[in-house]
Amino acid sequence: MFEGITKSLTEAFKKFRGGKLTAENVRDGLREVRRAFIEADVNYDVVTDFIGRVEAKAVGQEVLARVNPSDQIIKIVHDELVATMGPVDPKIPQRADRPVVLMLCGLQGAGKTTTAAKLALTLQSRGRKPLLAAADLQRPGAVEQLRTLGEQIGVPVYSEATNPVDVCRNAVAEAKRTLCDAVILDTAGRLQIDDDLMAELQRIDKLVKPDECYLVVDAMIGQEAANVAKAFNDALELNACILTKLDGDARGGAAMSIKGVTGVPVKFIGVGEKVDKLEDFVPERMAGRIMGQGDLMGVVEKIASIQSQVSEEELKKQQEALTKGQFTLDMFRQQFATIAKMGMKDMLGRMPGMSEMIPEGEDPEEALKRVQGMIDSMTKKEKDDPDIIDTPRRRRIARGAGVEPHEVNQFLKQFEQVRFLMKQMASMSMWQRLKMVTG
Ligand code: GDP
Ligand code: MG
Protein backbone atom coordinates (compact mmCIF):
# COMPACT_ATOMS: atom_id res chain seq x y z
CA MET A 1 0.00 0.00 0.00
CA PHE A 2 0.98 3.62 0.34
CA GLU A 3 2.60 3.11 3.68
CA GLY A 4 6.11 3.35 2.39
CA ILE A 5 6.17 6.42 0.18
CA THR A 6 7.70 8.81 2.66
CA LYS A 7 9.97 6.11 3.96
CA SER A 8 11.20 4.94 0.58
CA LEU A 9 11.90 8.50 -0.45
CA THR A 10 13.93 9.03 2.69
CA GLU A 11 15.92 5.89 1.88
CA ALA A 12 16.43 6.76 -1.77
CA PHE A 13 17.82 10.21 -1.12
CA LYS A 14 19.82 9.45 1.97
CA LYS A 15 23.09 9.18 0.12
CA PHE A 16 22.62 12.42 -1.70
CA ARG A 17 23.65 15.69 -0.14
CA GLY A 18 24.42 19.16 -1.38
CA GLY A 19 24.34 20.58 -4.89
CA LYS A 20 21.45 20.20 -7.26
CA LEU A 21 19.01 17.37 -7.63
CA THR A 22 19.85 15.77 -10.97
CA ALA A 23 17.44 14.07 -13.32
CA GLU A 24 19.07 10.78 -12.54
CA ASN A 25 18.87 10.77 -8.79
CA VAL A 26 15.37 12.20 -8.85
CA ARG A 27 14.23 9.48 -11.23
CA ASP A 28 15.83 6.81 -9.09
CA GLY A 29 14.09 8.09 -6.02
CA LEU A 30 10.74 8.42 -7.68
CA ARG A 31 10.78 4.89 -9.08
CA GLU A 32 9.77 3.67 -5.64
CA VAL A 33 7.03 6.24 -5.39
CA ARG A 34 5.62 5.18 -8.73
CA ARG A 35 5.62 1.54 -7.67
CA ALA A 36 3.87 2.36 -4.41
CA PHE A 37 1.14 4.30 -6.22
CA ILE A 38 0.61 1.60 -8.84
CA GLU A 39 0.51 -1.10 -6.21
CA ALA A 40 -2.02 0.93 -4.32
CA ASP A 41 -4.22 0.80 -7.39
CA VAL A 42 -4.03 4.41 -8.45
CA ASN A 43 -4.87 4.84 -12.12
CA TYR A 44 -1.76 4.24 -14.27
CA ASP A 45 -2.07 7.38 -16.38
CA VAL A 46 -2.65 9.49 -13.31
CA VAL A 47 0.49 8.11 -11.70
CA THR A 48 2.54 8.72 -14.85
CA ASP A 49 1.36 12.32 -15.12
CA PHE A 50 1.95 12.84 -11.46
CA ILE A 51 5.49 11.48 -11.45
CA GLY A 52 6.26 13.59 -14.51
CA ARG A 53 5.19 16.76 -12.75
CA VAL A 54 7.14 15.94 -9.61
CA GLU A 55 10.22 15.16 -11.67
CA ALA A 56 10.02 18.45 -13.53
CA LYS A 57 9.77 20.35 -10.28
CA ALA A 58 12.50 18.45 -8.51
CA VAL A 59 15.19 18.31 -11.16
CA GLY A 60 17.55 21.22 -10.92
CA GLN A 61 16.11 22.45 -7.70
CA GLU A 62 18.83 23.70 -5.43
CA VAL A 63 19.13 21.50 -2.40
CA LEU A 64 18.55 23.76 0.54
CA ALA A 65 21.40 23.75 2.98
CA ARG A 66 20.58 21.93 6.18
CA VAL A 67 17.58 20.21 4.60
CA ASN A 68 17.70 16.56 3.60
CA PRO A 69 17.20 16.11 -0.13
CA SER A 70 14.67 13.44 0.76
CA ASP A 71 12.70 15.92 2.82
CA GLN A 72 12.76 18.29 -0.08
CA ILE A 73 11.40 15.66 -2.48
CA ILE A 74 8.81 14.60 0.07
CA LYS A 75 7.67 18.20 0.17
CA ILE A 76 7.42 18.35 -3.62
CA VAL A 77 5.48 15.07 -3.77
CA HIS A 78 3.21 16.28 -1.01
CA ASP A 79 2.54 19.66 -2.64
CA GLU A 80 1.89 18.04 -5.99
CA LEU A 81 -0.57 15.62 -4.37
CA VAL A 82 -2.38 18.53 -2.79
CA ALA A 83 -2.46 20.36 -6.12
CA THR A 84 -3.69 17.24 -7.92
CA MET A 85 -6.55 16.63 -5.51
CA GLY A 86 -7.53 20.25 -4.90
CA PRO A 87 -8.81 22.86 -4.82
CA VAL A 88 -11.97 22.09 -2.90
CA ASP A 89 -14.97 24.29 -2.33
CA PRO A 90 -16.68 23.03 0.82
CA LYS A 91 -19.70 25.28 0.39
CA ILE A 92 -23.12 23.90 -0.45
CA PRO A 93 -24.87 26.40 -2.73
CA GLN A 94 -27.92 28.29 -1.58
CA ARG A 95 -30.66 30.13 -3.50
CA ALA A 96 -32.68 32.99 -2.11
CA ASP A 97 -35.73 32.40 -4.31
CA ARG A 98 -36.15 28.63 -4.17
CA PRO A 99 -34.76 25.48 -2.60
CA VAL A 100 -31.45 24.34 -4.00
CA VAL A 101 -31.59 20.82 -5.45
CA LEU A 102 -28.72 18.41 -4.78
CA MET A 103 -28.73 15.11 -6.62
CA LEU A 104 -26.80 12.12 -5.33
CA CYS A 105 -25.93 9.34 -7.72
CA GLY A 106 -23.69 6.30 -7.69
CA LEU A 107 -23.51 2.54 -7.75
CA GLN A 108 -25.53 0.37 -5.40
CA GLY A 109 -23.97 0.11 -1.98
CA ALA A 110 -21.71 3.13 -2.51
CA GLY A 111 -23.38 4.89 0.39
CA LYS A 112 -25.86 7.22 -1.32
CA THR A 113 -28.70 6.84 1.16
CA THR A 114 -26.42 7.12 4.17
CA THR A 115 -24.69 10.12 2.61
CA ALA A 116 -28.02 11.80 1.82
CA ALA A 117 -28.81 11.74 5.54
CA LYS A 118 -25.30 12.89 6.45
CA LEU A 119 -25.58 15.77 4.02
CA ALA A 120 -28.98 16.72 5.42
CA LEU A 121 -27.55 16.75 8.92
CA THR A 122 -24.62 18.89 7.75
CA LEU A 123 -27.01 21.39 6.17
CA GLN A 124 -29.14 21.41 9.29
CA SER A 125 -26.11 22.14 11.44
CA ARG A 126 -25.33 25.07 9.15
CA GLY A 127 -28.75 26.49 9.93
CA ARG A 128 -30.45 25.28 6.78
CA LYS A 129 -33.70 23.41 6.29
CA PRO A 130 -33.30 20.36 4.07
CA LEU A 131 -35.81 17.87 2.67
CA LEU A 132 -34.84 14.35 1.66
CA ALA A 133 -36.39 12.80 -1.45
CA ALA A 134 -36.63 9.01 -1.67
CA ALA A 135 -36.08 8.53 -5.39
CA ASP A 136 -34.71 4.99 -5.24
CA LEU A 137 -37.71 2.88 -6.18
CA GLN A 138 -35.58 -0.08 -7.24
CA ARG A 139 -34.06 -1.43 -4.11
CA PRO A 140 -36.56 -2.99 -1.71
CA GLY A 141 -36.50 -1.17 1.57
CA ALA A 142 -34.67 1.86 0.17
CA VAL A 143 -37.51 4.26 1.01
CA GLU A 144 -37.85 2.80 4.48
CA GLN A 145 -34.10 3.14 5.06
CA LEU A 146 -34.23 6.83 4.21
CA ARG A 147 -37.33 7.35 6.38
CA THR A 148 -35.60 5.83 9.37
CA LEU A 149 -32.53 8.01 8.86
CA GLY A 150 -34.71 11.11 8.37
CA GLU A 151 -36.53 10.45 11.64
CA GLN A 152 -33.22 9.98 13.39
CA ILE A 153 -31.98 13.43 12.41
CA GLY A 154 -35.35 15.17 12.36
CA VAL A 155 -35.38 15.89 8.64
CA PRO A 156 -38.58 15.35 6.59
CA VAL A 157 -38.51 12.67 3.88
CA TYR A 158 -40.64 12.94 0.74
CA SER A 159 -41.75 9.75 -0.96
CA GLU A 160 -44.47 8.46 -3.25
CA ALA A 161 -44.92 5.15 -5.04
CA THR A 162 -44.83 6.47 -8.61
CA ASN A 163 -41.59 6.93 -10.53
CA PRO A 164 -38.24 8.58 -9.73
CA VAL A 165 -38.83 11.68 -11.86
CA ASP A 166 -42.16 12.43 -10.21
CA VAL A 167 -40.73 11.80 -6.76
CA CYS A 168 -38.00 14.36 -7.41
CA ARG A 169 -40.27 16.90 -9.06
CA ASN A 170 -42.91 16.69 -6.36
CA ALA A 171 -40.28 16.75 -3.63
CA VAL A 172 -39.08 20.11 -4.93
CA ALA A 173 -42.66 21.41 -4.90
CA GLU A 174 -43.11 20.08 -1.36
CA ALA A 175 -39.89 21.81 -0.29
CA LYS A 176 -41.15 25.12 -1.66
CA ARG A 177 -44.46 24.69 0.13
CA THR A 178 -42.86 23.85 3.45
CA LEU A 179 -40.14 26.52 3.08
CA CYS A 180 -37.25 24.10 2.97
CA ASP A 181 -34.13 25.56 1.37
CA ALA A 182 -32.53 22.37 0.06
CA VAL A 183 -33.72 19.11 -1.47
CA ILE A 184 -31.44 16.09 -1.49
CA LEU A 185 -32.34 13.49 -4.09
CA ASP A 186 -31.42 9.94 -3.07
CA THR A 187 -31.46 8.10 -6.39
CA ALA A 188 -31.23 4.42 -7.30
CA GLY A 189 -28.00 2.63 -8.10
CA ARG A 190 -26.99 -0.54 -9.92
CA LEU A 191 -24.28 -3.03 -9.23
CA GLN A 192 -22.68 -2.05 -12.52
CA ILE A 193 -22.93 0.99 -14.69
CA ASP A 194 -25.67 0.31 -17.21
CA ASP A 195 -27.67 2.24 -19.76
CA ASP A 196 -30.97 1.95 -17.87
CA LEU A 197 -29.49 3.53 -14.79
CA MET A 198 -27.88 6.36 -16.74
CA ALA A 199 -31.05 6.97 -18.74
CA GLU A 200 -33.09 7.26 -15.54
CA LEU A 201 -30.61 9.66 -13.98
CA GLN A 202 -30.45 11.74 -17.15
CA ARG A 203 -34.24 11.98 -17.14
CA ILE A 204 -34.17 13.34 -13.59
CA ASP A 205 -31.33 15.66 -14.54
CA LYS A 206 -33.24 17.01 -17.53
CA LEU A 207 -36.64 17.39 -15.91
CA VAL A 208 -35.75 18.41 -12.35
CA LYS A 209 -32.55 20.31 -13.18
CA PRO A 210 -30.58 19.78 -9.97
CA ASP A 211 -28.25 22.64 -9.03
CA GLU A 212 -25.49 20.24 -8.12
CA CYS A 213 -24.88 16.61 -8.87
CA TYR A 214 -22.63 14.64 -6.53
CA LEU A 215 -21.31 11.18 -7.24
CA VAL A 216 -21.08 8.98 -4.16
CA VAL A 217 -18.14 6.57 -4.49
CA ASP A 218 -16.89 3.83 -2.25
CA ALA A 219 -13.19 4.54 -1.62
CA MET A 220 -12.53 0.81 -1.27
CA ILE A 221 -12.92 0.22 -5.02
CA GLY A 222 -9.62 2.02 -5.62
CA GLN A 223 -8.69 2.64 -9.24
CA GLU A 224 -12.11 1.49 -10.47
CA ALA A 225 -13.42 4.70 -8.88
CA ALA A 226 -11.94 6.64 -11.77
CA ASN A 227 -13.88 4.58 -14.34
CA VAL A 228 -17.10 4.94 -12.40
CA ALA A 229 -16.57 8.68 -12.07
CA LYS A 230 -15.83 8.99 -15.77
CA ALA A 231 -19.04 7.18 -16.78
CA PHE A 232 -21.21 9.27 -14.46
CA ASN A 233 -19.44 12.48 -15.39
CA ASP A 234 -19.93 11.81 -19.11
CA ALA A 235 -23.64 11.30 -18.54
CA LEU A 236 -24.38 13.92 -15.91
CA GLU A 237 -21.60 16.49 -15.58
CA LEU A 238 -20.76 15.98 -11.95
CA ASN A 239 -20.02 18.92 -9.68
CA ALA A 240 -18.14 16.87 -7.13
CA CYS A 241 -17.64 13.45 -5.61
CA ILE A 242 -18.25 12.23 -2.11
CA LEU A 243 -15.81 9.49 -1.17
CA THR A 244 -17.24 7.06 1.39
CA LYS A 245 -15.87 4.38 3.70
CA LEU A 246 -12.60 6.15 4.30
CA ASP A 247 -12.79 4.91 7.86
CA GLY A 248 -11.67 1.55 6.49
CA ASP A 249 -8.38 0.51 4.95
CA ALA A 250 -8.72 2.61 1.81
CA ARG A 251 -5.82 4.99 1.65
CA GLY A 252 -7.36 7.60 -0.52
CA GLY A 253 -5.85 6.69 -3.88
CA ALA A 254 -9.38 6.90 -5.26
CA ALA A 255 -9.43 10.65 -4.65
CA MET A 256 -6.32 11.01 -6.75
CA SER A 257 -7.57 8.74 -9.53
CA ILE A 258 -10.96 10.43 -9.79
CA LYS A 259 -9.58 13.95 -9.91
CA GLY A 260 -6.78 12.95 -12.25
CA VAL A 261 -9.04 11.21 -14.75
CA THR A 262 -12.16 13.38 -14.67
CA GLY A 263 -11.09 16.66 -13.14
CA VAL A 264 -14.01 16.31 -10.72
CA PRO A 265 -12.93 17.19 -7.18
CA VAL A 266 -13.82 15.31 -4.05
CA LYS A 267 -15.90 17.56 -1.81
CA PHE A 268 -16.78 15.46 1.22
CA ILE A 269 -15.66 12.19 2.72
CA GLY A 270 -17.63 9.58 4.64
CA VAL A 271 -15.74 8.23 7.61
CA GLY A 272 -18.25 5.93 9.26
CA GLU A 273 -21.72 4.47 9.11
CA LYS A 274 -23.25 6.96 11.54
CA VAL A 275 -25.02 10.08 10.28
CA ASP A 276 -22.50 12.49 11.74
CA LYS A 277 -19.58 10.86 9.94
CA LEU A 278 -19.24 13.26 7.05
CA GLU A 279 -16.24 15.56 6.78
CA ASP A 280 -15.01 18.22 4.38
CA PHE A 281 -12.41 16.84 2.03
CA VAL A 282 -9.05 18.41 2.89
CA PRO A 283 -6.39 17.69 0.22
CA GLU A 284 -3.55 18.32 2.68
CA ARG A 285 -4.90 15.73 5.07
CA MET A 286 -5.49 13.24 2.28
CA ALA A 287 -1.96 13.78 0.97
CA GLY A 288 -0.68 12.92 4.43
CA ARG A 289 -2.79 9.80 4.47
CA ILE A 290 -1.62 8.77 1.03
CA MET A 291 2.01 9.31 1.88
CA GLY A 292 1.57 7.40 5.07
CA GLN A 293 3.66 9.23 7.57
CA GLY A 294 2.48 10.92 10.69
CA ASP A 295 5.51 13.13 10.82
CA LEU A 296 5.02 14.37 7.27
CA MET A 297 3.53 17.66 8.32
CA GLY A 298 6.62 18.38 10.37
CA VAL A 299 8.79 18.09 7.28
CA VAL A 300 6.42 20.12 5.15
CA GLU A 301 6.13 22.92 7.67
CA LYS A 302 9.82 23.09 8.27
CA ILE A 303 10.62 23.54 4.61
CA ALA A 304 7.73 25.89 3.97
CA SER A 305 8.96 28.09 6.77
CA ILE A 306 12.52 28.10 5.51
CA GLN A 307 11.28 29.02 2.04
CA SER A 308 9.12 31.81 3.38
CA GLN A 309 11.83 33.35 5.47
CA VAL A 310 12.25 37.08 5.39
CA SER A 311 13.75 38.55 2.24
CA GLU A 312 17.51 38.80 1.87
CA GLU A 313 17.37 42.55 2.15
CA GLU A 314 15.40 42.55 5.32
CA LEU A 315 17.68 39.90 6.68
CA LYS A 316 20.74 42.04 6.04
CA LYS A 317 19.14 45.02 7.69
CA GLN A 318 18.22 42.97 10.71
CA GLN A 319 21.68 41.48 10.96
CA GLU A 320 23.29 44.89 10.81
CA ALA A 321 21.07 46.18 13.54
CA LEU A 322 21.72 43.10 15.59
CA THR A 323 25.51 43.28 15.40
CA LYS A 324 25.22 46.78 16.77
CA GLY A 325 23.23 45.34 19.62
CA GLN A 326 20.10 47.06 18.41
CA PHE A 327 17.60 44.38 19.15
CA THR A 328 14.47 46.25 20.08
CA LEU A 329 11.27 45.10 21.66
CA ASP A 330 9.53 45.81 18.37
CA MET A 331 11.90 43.51 16.51
CA PHE A 332 11.36 40.92 19.16
CA ARG A 333 7.61 41.21 18.89
CA GLN A 334 7.81 40.68 15.16
CA GLN A 335 10.08 37.64 15.37
CA PHE A 336 8.07 36.05 18.13
CA ALA A 337 4.89 36.50 16.10
CA THR A 338 6.45 35.20 12.87
CA ILE A 339 7.60 32.02 14.52
CA ALA A 340 4.30 31.48 16.28
CA LYS A 341 2.39 32.08 13.04
CA MET A 342 4.47 29.58 11.13
CA GLY A 343 2.72 27.02 13.25
CA MET A 344 6.01 25.90 14.69
CA LYS A 345 4.95 25.95 18.26
CA ASP A 346 7.47 23.35 19.26
CA MET A 347 10.17 25.40 17.61
CA LEU A 348 9.30 28.42 19.69
CA GLY A 349 9.72 26.28 22.72
CA ARG A 350 13.27 25.52 21.63
CA MET A 351 14.31 29.07 20.79
CA PRO A 352 17.01 30.10 23.19
CA GLY A 353 15.63 32.69 25.55
CA MET A 354 12.17 32.57 24.10
CA SER A 355 11.34 29.20 25.56
CA GLU A 356 11.43 30.69 29.04
CA MET A 357 8.63 33.02 28.05
CA ILE A 358 6.27 30.12 27.68
CA PRO A 359 5.61 28.60 31.07
CA GLU A 360 5.25 24.83 31.28
CA GLY A 361 1.87 23.86 29.89
CA GLU A 362 0.92 27.22 28.42
CA ASP A 363 -0.28 27.28 24.84
CA PRO A 364 2.35 29.19 22.78
CA GLU A 365 -0.55 31.03 21.17
CA GLU A 366 -1.52 32.35 24.62
CA ALA A 367 2.07 33.22 25.43
CA LEU A 368 2.25 35.16 22.19
CA LYS A 369 -0.84 37.15 23.09
CA ARG A 370 0.48 37.87 26.56
CA VAL A 371 3.87 39.01 25.33
CA GLN A 372 2.38 41.09 22.55
CA GLY A 373 -0.01 42.67 25.00
CA MET A 374 2.85 43.80 27.20
CA ILE A 375 4.90 45.18 24.32
CA ASP A 376 1.87 46.96 22.89
CA SER A 377 1.21 48.62 26.23
CA MET A 378 4.61 50.30 26.21
CA THR A 379 5.33 53.75 24.85
CA LYS A 380 7.85 54.15 22.06
CA LYS A 381 10.34 55.57 24.52
CA GLU A 382 9.95 52.54 26.79
CA LYS A 383 10.36 50.15 23.89
CA ASP A 384 13.53 51.84 22.72
CA ASP A 385 14.98 51.96 26.19
CA PRO A 386 13.41 49.40 28.55
CA ASP A 387 15.73 50.56 31.32
CA ILE A 388 13.48 53.53 32.03
CA ILE A 389 10.62 51.24 33.04
CA ASP A 390 10.18 51.89 36.75
CA THR A 391 7.50 50.73 39.15
CA PRO A 392 4.72 53.13 38.08
CA ARG A 393 5.43 52.42 34.42
CA ARG A 394 5.49 48.69 35.11
CA ARG A 395 2.09 48.94 36.81
CA ARG A 396 0.65 50.86 33.88
CA ILE A 397 1.98 48.33 31.34
CA ALA A 398 0.66 45.44 33.41
CA ARG A 399 -2.77 47.04 33.56
CA GLY A 400 -2.77 47.62 29.83
CA ALA A 401 -1.85 44.02 29.09
CA GLY A 402 -4.06 42.49 31.76
CA VAL A 403 -1.15 40.85 33.57
CA GLU A 404 0.51 41.21 36.98
CA PRO A 405 3.36 43.74 37.39
CA HIS A 406 5.81 40.98 38.29
CA GLU A 407 5.09 39.35 34.93
CA VAL A 408 6.23 42.52 33.19
CA ASN A 409 9.35 42.44 35.28
CA GLN A 410 10.01 38.84 34.42
CA PHE A 411 9.41 39.44 30.74
CA LEU A 412 11.86 42.34 30.64
CA LYS A 413 14.52 40.20 32.29
CA GLN A 414 13.96 37.46 29.73
CA PHE A 415 14.05 39.99 26.95
CA GLU A 416 17.45 41.18 28.18
CA GLN A 417 18.67 37.61 27.85
CA VAL A 418 17.22 37.28 24.36
CA ARG A 419 18.85 40.54 23.35
CA PHE A 420 22.19 39.18 24.47
CA LEU A 421 21.69 35.93 22.57
CA MET A 422 20.54 37.78 19.49
CA LYS A 423 23.70 39.80 19.46
CA GLN A 424 25.67 36.58 19.47
CA MET A 425 23.51 35.02 16.80
CA ALA A 426 23.88 38.05 14.57
CA SER A 427 27.37 36.97 13.71
CA MET A 428 26.08 33.63 12.46
CA SER A 429 24.61 32.96 9.04
CA MET A 430 20.92 32.47 8.48
CA TRP A 431 21.44 28.74 8.12
CA GLN A 432 23.43 28.49 11.29
CA ARG A 433 20.66 30.29 13.08
CA LEU A 434 18.00 28.08 11.63
CA LYS A 435 20.04 25.05 12.47
CA MET A 436 20.36 26.28 16.01
CA VAL A 437 16.61 26.56 16.18
CA THR A 438 15.43 23.52 14.24
CA GLY A 439 18.11 21.25 15.63
P1 GDP B 1 -26.54 3.07 -1.31
O1 GDP B 1 -26.92 1.76 -1.88
O2 GDP B 1 -25.58 3.77 -2.23
O3 GDP B 1 -27.69 3.91 -0.92
O4 GDP B 1 -25.68 2.76 0.00
P2 GDP B 1 -26.14 2.82 1.52
O5 GDP B 1 -26.24 4.22 1.97
O6 GDP B 1 -27.30 1.95 1.73
O7 GDP B 1 -24.84 2.21 2.19
C1 GDP B 1 -24.36 0.89 1.95
C2 GDP B 1 -23.60 0.42 3.17
O8 GDP B 1 -22.43 1.18 3.33
C3 GDP B 1 -24.38 0.57 4.45
O9 GDP B 1 -24.14 -0.56 5.26
C4 GDP B 1 -23.77 1.81 5.09
O10 GDP B 1 -23.87 1.78 6.50
C5 GDP B 1 -22.34 1.71 4.64
N1 GDP B 1 -21.68 3.01 4.59
C6 GDP B 1 -22.03 4.13 3.93
N2 GDP B 1 -21.15 5.12 4.11
C7 GDP B 1 -20.18 4.62 4.91
C8 GDP B 1 -18.96 5.15 5.45
O11 GDP B 1 -18.55 6.29 5.24
N3 GDP B 1 -18.25 4.30 6.24
C9 GDP B 1 -18.63 3.02 6.49
N4 GDP B 1 -17.86 2.27 7.26
N5 GDP B 1 -19.76 2.50 5.98
C10 GDP B 1 -20.52 3.27 5.21
MG1 MG C 1 -29.67 3.68 -1.23
From TrEMBL:
PROSITE patterns: SRP54 (PS00300). The lineage of its organism: Bacteria, Pseudomonadati, Planctomycetota, Planctomycetia, Gemmatales. Its main location: cytoplasm. GO terms for cellular component: signal recognition particle. InterPro entries: AAA+_ATPase, P-loop_NTPase, Signal_recog_part_SRP54_M_sf, Signal_recog_particl_SRP54_hlx, Signal_recog_particle_SRP54_M, SRP, SRP54, SRP54_GTPase_dom. Part of the signal recognition particle protein translocation system, which is composed of SRP and FtsY. PANTHER family: SIGNAL RECOGNITION PARTICLE 54K PROTEIN SRP54, SIGNAL RECOGNITION PARTICLE SUBUNIT SRP54. This is Signal recognition particle protein. Involved in targeting and insertion of nascent membrane proteins into the cytoplasmic membrane. Binds to the hydrophobic signal sequence of the ribosome-nascent chain (RNC) as it emerges from the ribosomes. The SRP-RNC complex is then targeted to the cytoplasmic membrane where it interacts with the SRP receptor FtsY. Signal peptide: none annotated. GTP binds at residues 106-113, 186-190, 244-247. It catalyses: GTP + H2O = GDP + phosphate + H(+). Residues 265-278 form the SRP54-type proteins GTP-binding domain. One of its GO terms (biological process) is SRP-dependent cotranslational protein targeting to membrane. Keywords: Cytoplasm, GTP-binding, Hydrolase, Nucleotide-binding, Ribonucleoprotein, RNA-binding, Signal recognition particle. Pfam families: SRP54, SRP54_N, SRP_SPB. Its EC number is 3.6.5.4. GO terms for molecular function: 7S RNA binding; GTP binding; GTPase activity. It is found in: Cytoplasm. It is an enzyme of class 3 (hydrolase). Composed of three domains: the N-terminal N domain, which is responsible for interactions with the ribosome, the central G domain, which binds GTP, and the C-terminal M domain, which binds the RNA and the signal sequence of the RNC. Belongs to the GTP-binding SRP family. SRP54 subfamily. It comes from Urbifossiella limnaea.
